[in-house]
Design a protein that fits this description.
It is a single chain. The protein has 9 helices and 12 strands. By secondary structure, it is an alpha+beta fold. The chain folds into 2 domains: 4-110, 3-Layer(aba) Sandwich (Aminopeptidase), CATH 3.40.630.30; 138-302, Aminopeptidase (3-Layer(aba) Sandwich). A 12-stranded mixed sheet has the order 1-2-3-4-5-12-6-11-10-9-8-7. A hairpin with a 3-residue loop joins strand 9 (231-240) and strand 10.
Length: 341
């Protein structure tokens, strides 16, 4: 029996939850399939992308595969390209391969499709579907409140005192000082990337994306201008969960390693002043951003490959940082996140 591919609707919610539960071996109360989160991911309006973001493959009246889109538009000079990464890509365990045609449909519909890491199964499948490895994304982190974390989340093993002492030292050195003249000013999404308010354009993301991110039901979104000697030279966004503050993204007028360092230190300071998080996490996809993260006292906790396929073929690199906001890592499991420091 052939499959019908169509955009999903909220009437498909129960079947999609059932499919994801079986495909990923999830309990019915798993955070990944909370109804509020699914409705936001798949069907909540997003000004920057009015097209469907959730697709299903259906045989008869039964959904056998699902794929959701996390869209982005990149600009290189006057050239603009629309692409997506895939999230919640799953097929019924009893119907292997049902999700592949959905991915093939994507490849024909957008200029590019990329994938940052993914499950072991995804990483084994996508190279056979025409994806090439074009880079590596590194997850960086630093403790914010190690003593408070140790009191609230004690671990009864011999290594616990050593880890507490290590994190206490790690949280203090180097100091969280970006340097004279540097500061971060909290702003609403109306001020983010406004051409009249900042020299730094949004590039991949519009104001509408951040208004959409503010609606995330599992985290709080905060945005900040980066100011150097009284002039706005960039901006960053944090997504805040129960125990973590995640650097959704940093955008700089001059993306040098030194400016990345200042931006990461400002993000750490903002997380300390405006959240109760115990650690801060970021992701970097360039040498300059990684150098800045290291100089700002952060350490690598994870490395994953970045896969890319283009509709017209080729592996030309995207002008994309592969930060946390470039896929669902910005909010995934943020309410039940395990510590990475």
């Amino acid at each position: 029996m052939s499959s019908v591919h169509r955009p999903s609707t909220i009437q498909d919610e129960a079947q999609i939850i059932e499919l994801l539960s079986r495909a990923f071996s999830l309990g019915r109360n798993a955070h990944l399939i909370e109804p509020d989160l699914l409705r936001w991911k798949y069907w909540a309006p997003c000004e920057d992308w009015p097209e469907p973001r959730s697709w299903v493959a259906e045989r008869g009246e039964r959904i056998v595969a699902h794929l959701s889109l996390w869209p982005v538009t990149v600009r290189n000079g006057e050239i603009s390209e629309r692409g997506v990464t895939m999230i919640d890509w799953a097929s019924d365990p009893g119907t292997p391969g049902a999700g592949v045609p959905l991915l093939q449909r994507l490849r024909k519909s957008y200029e590019f499709v990329y994938c940052i890491g993914g499950t072991a199964m995804t990483q084994s499948i996508v190279p056979r579907l025409g994806f090439s490895i074009v880079g590596e994304a590194l997850t960086w982190a630093r403790p914010l409140r190690p003593w408070r974390r140790s009191l609230r989340y004690p671990v009864r093993n011999l290594g616990f005192p050593v880890r507490v002492a290590r994190n206490a030292w790690w949280s203090l050195a180097p100091p969280r000082t970006a340097g004279p003249g540097w500061s971060a000013i909290v702003t609403g999404t109306r001020g983010v990337g406004n051409s009249d308010d900042s020299p730094v354009p949004l590039f991949e993301r519009g104001d509408g994306f951040f208004r959409y991110l503010e609606q995330c039901p599992v985290a709080r979104c905060l945005t900040f201008h980066i100011v150097d000697e009284g002039r706005k030279v960039g901006w960053f966004a944090l997504l805040v969960g129960r125990v973590q503050a995640r650097v959704a993204g940093i955008w700089l007028e001059d993306p040098s390693a030194g400016n990345w360092r200042a931006a990461f230190l400002l993000a750490q300071r903002a997380a300390l002043q405006r959240t109760d998080a115990y650690e801060i996490v970021a992701r970097c996809g360039t040498e300059a951003s990684s150098a800045g993260a290291e100089q700002a006292g952060m350490r690598v906790r994870k490395r994953v490959p970045v896969f890319l396929t283009r509709r017209g073929g080729g592996t030309d690199l995207l002008p994309l940082q592969y930060q946390l906001c470039d896929d669902d890592a910005v909010f995934l499991t943020i309410q039940s996140a395990r510590f990475v420091t």
